[in-house]
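Researcher: Next entry in the queue.
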Amino acid sequence: MQPFELPDFYLPYPARLNPHVETAREHTRAWAHDMGILDPDLGIWDEDRLEAMDYGLLCAYTHPDAPAGELDLITDWYVWVFFFDDHFLEAFKRSGDLAGAKEYLDRLAAFMPVHPTGPAPEPENPVERGLADLWARTIPAMSADWRARFVESTRNLLDESLWELANINAGRVANPIEYIEMRRKVGGAPWSANLVEHAAGAEVPAAVAASRPMRVLRDTFADGVHLRNDLFSYEREVGDEGELSNGVLVFERFLGYDTQQAADAVNDLITSRLHQFENTALTELPALFEEHGLDLKSRIDVLAYVKGLQDWQSGGHEWHMRSSRYMNGASRTSPVAPALLGGPAGLGTSAARIRLAPGITGPGGIRSHLHVPLQKVGPVPLPEIYMPYPARMNPNLDSARRHAVEWAREMGMFEQLPGFPGLAIWTERKLDGYDFAICAGAINPDAPGPELDISTFWLTWGTYADDYFPVVFGPRRDMLGAKVFNERLSAFMPLDLSATPPPANPIERGLADLWFRTATPMSESARAEFRRAVEDMTESWLWELANHIQNRVPDPVDYIEMRRKTFGSDLTMSLSRLAHGRSVPPEVYNTRTMRGLDDSAADYACLVNDLCSYQKEIQFEGELHNCVLVVQDFLNCDLRQAVDIVNDLMTSRMRQFEHTVATEIPALFDDFDLDGEARETLNGYVAELQDWMAGVLLWHMKTRRYDESELRYPPATTRPLGAPAGLGTAAAHLGASAHRYLATGL
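Model: Structure for this entry, 746 residues:
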């Protein structure tokens, strides 16, 4: 008996079948024999099992327009990757052999050279033999940029199997945020997206490959593919294999749902991610093309790639409904209707089938555009917030308070805005109530007075900028003006510390002042990374404005990932890494362990802000970017339930932080054979993050920024629209990092 009924899926694009399906089946059967994949001594697969799983059909559905030779190659890749997954299960997961798994995976990297300079090692098993053969057949047609991206996604697919194995050994089910991010890597859909480029002969131009729109298209595709697979594979993975990395199980454990409820929630998330895919393709790609000045061929290649991802999504679903590998229910498998094979397909054609798409009104669809702003919600009682680290206070607190008001006055933050008669963002009374020195003092409890001042100034600047941006550009939906404003900010962060243009507003004046205070001790390369991090943060405000223009409550996954940018998380992490550069190898910070540590800390602080700022943002500012609202929209639940879920999510991120510190950081020390100085530096970095989280929470408990009496006090101006205000910017991160930079001499 199946553990749940498969839900109704949102399927906006018809599946089509490649006419070369039979030749692909024949070819890959012979190839599997040649590579030793069907070796009976291994006991993994035999020919009957390979036939039943039918990877030729999978690739014929997911790449319906590929020529015969290309379809053969793609099918071989999928036979290889699924065999790897099953072989890894039998060889390492069932036994929990973590050391053997590491040694096994380390060897595979040698079979994927971006620039082959000599023969690869002699293959010792079918996985190595198949990878060597496929690599030689695949890379000649592609650029070095594509090869590097494909190597990265393949290594992620292979190496993150260790994450699954570690969780199995520990009996640990990931929290939803961690799971989604890690599932992308271990699940392999980004790898599949790379192969879409190869199959379509449409390589994504290097100039835009790392842009937000292309990243979101890849990630939404990946999430849709992986979560769909979780629904179909739940019975086999959880029931038979003892697997803990399955989205249905994650939702069961985190939300307390029964299996059917969890399956339905996973399907809702698939629907939301597909709507995010469509929204990105239709609203962000045109602007991307113009901003980068892409030529016609490059634009056609990107659109062909998008169409290929759509084909994969619908074709993958069709295969899951037919393959013996998964739970699907025999009654649900039926041939593709001939009419669908010739129906509308590709970018922008879902409208032709809008009445047939059951998910169009679901999460991420029409419902997410129907939020009524400025609803009265009243004060929100805070739940009990988990914080295992004590907050300490800097003794220079009072002087930092005085100096922050003086600095804000000097920068013009209490004046009427140029070009906006009668409009001022802040008053001195408001800034006194915000009391950013408390946050800076708890984040930097040991900083000398001048360094604490700069930390407080960064907090002040970041929050003022975050208040300013929606007031000036929100009511008029002025995206063009917002982009011009954002582009000007780079001129106030010169790498050579040369003169800046005359500032036109307090944000430019404050940024120029803080840039020279903070960047002067840095090397030029450090300044470049510092500036990039500031730019990433300010550009995220454009994403918020775009959602306001559409009156669109964000998709939950996109919200969490972009919230780190609006919060400035990447900025802080890059600054701290640069400060540690002398003693810690840079590659350490690119590991899953360190990124997971950073992201869990950032998410905790972001969610603290969302809980505390809900009334201010929803009732008084007409805000859309608050996790409580996002949860309400996604789960269609009431406010109390949403608050509890956000608090649970916040707690789970803190628990993950603690787990990483206790178990993964020591293992990282050993993996990189770090010396005593590097270990001491990283332990200090962990302590800095602990101070930072404790300081952010303390400030939220002390500030008057979110008090209803303060919100009702006659403001300097009416704020009909808003982006997340206060600590929901780079402010806290900037303040946490500035004092460390001043001491490095970089």
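Model: The first helix runs from residue 21 to 35.
Researcher: Noted, moving on.
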